[in-house]
UniProtKB/TrEMBL annotation:
This is Protein tyrosine phosphatase. Gene3D superfamilies: 3.40.50.2300. Residues 1-113 form the Phosphotyrosine protein phosphatase I domain. One of its GO terms (biological process) is response to arsenic-containing substance. The keyword Nucleus does not apply.
Length: 118
């Protein structure tokens, strides 16, 4: 969701990639549904595995909410933002909408702060 929001609100200004430490093979259908409700089509988006090179080559790393080094090496890199947002897996559609809205807010705040530095 964060990558989709970033692409929508800052499509030409920044390069964005979203990945996880143990992503599922396909996107959560409820995530696809709640994003479609607000006009964002994620059907063609695929989960990606987080790599060391992604972390090393990024100027900003965002942690969505994992808590230990084993499952989330990005926690232990310099200048990481921690949004503390729940995984939508096994959540109700209303909970996923709340997660979506929180991610949107965080992405908009991040874009604003990045633009202030440019």
């Amino acid at each position: 969701m964060a990558e989709a929001f970033f692409r929508k609100f800052a499509p030409d200004r920044f390069l964005v990639s979203s990945a996880g430490t143990s992503p599922s093979s396909q996107l959560n259908p409820i995530v696809i549904q709640v994003m479609k409700e607000i006009g964002i089509d994620m059907v063609d988006q695929k989960p990606k595995i987080l790599s060391d090179s992604m972390i090393k080559n990024s100027s900003k790393t965002v942690n969505m909410g994992c808590m230990d080094k084993e499952s989330c090496p990005s926690l232990f890199v310099k200048d990481v933002l921690d949004w503390n947002i729940s995984d939508p897996k096994e959540k109700s559609i209303d909970e996923v909408r709340e997660i979506r809205d929180k991610i949107k807010s965080e992405v908009l705040n991040l874009i604003k702060s990045l633009e202030e530095k440019v």
